[in-house]
Amino acid sequence: AASPRRLSLHDAACQIAQEIAEKIQERNRYQRNGESSAKLNVIIRSSLQNLREKIDQLKDLLLRAVSTHQITQLEGDRRQNLVDDLLTRQKQLQASYKNEGTEPDAIRSSLMTGGVKRGVTNPWLLEESEETRGLGFDDLRQQQRRIIEEQDAGLDALSSIISRQKQMGQEIGNELDEQN
């Protein structure tokens, strides 16, 4: 009985998040046009509270299911990831709500996800990291080469450590043979 409840709670939370993103967009459009957005602010604030409550309920259900061993650890981890995604989205929406008049990329991408689609993620809609934001194609390629060179250097160091340990192991083995 908990699983259908959890699914409907998760779907409801995703739907609320989608509606909040749309309301924030609408509010920002009103503000750009010089219209009053007070009514939308009240709706957004209420929806954000509702979303937070749904996420808290999901957390409680998950904790109960894991602690009573109703689900496997793997399923618990999967559900925790879904709750974490919702929490991240809620924080982004909260930040966007407080940033009146601006439209962060995260909100645009959340609008583009098309609402409630469990388990389907579009890799092109992930938020860009700080290191790559504003870089051109050649800059990204150069950064990628630098990262690969650093990884190669790390692997070379690891290889030399393992070789040294192998040699020490062989010397210890030879010493043991001699002692025996």
Order of helices and strands: HHHHH
In percent, how much strand structure appears in the residues?
Answer: under 5%
Total beta strands: 0
- Approximate helicity band: over 70%
Domain T-SNARE coiled-coil homology: 145-180
Protein name: STX8 protein
Organism: Calonectris borealis (Cory's shearwater)
Coiled coil: 41-68
Which SSEs are present, and which pair or pack?
Layout: H1 2-32, H2 38-67, H3 73-98, H4 105-112, H5 137-179
Helix pairs in contact: 1-2, 1-3, 1-4, 2-3
Could you explain the architecture of this structure?
- Helix content is 77%, strand content 0%.
- It is mainly alpha-helical and 180 residues long.
- The protein has a domain at 4-101.
- Helix 1 runs parallel beside helix 3 (73-98) and helix 1 crosses helix 4.
- The radius of gyration is 25 Å and the shape is flat.
- The protein starts with a helix and ends with a helix.
List the main descriptive attributes of the protein structure presented here.
flat; 77% helix; single chain; mainly alpha; 180 residues
Outline of this structure?
This protein has 180 residues and is mostly helical. It has 5 helices and no strands.
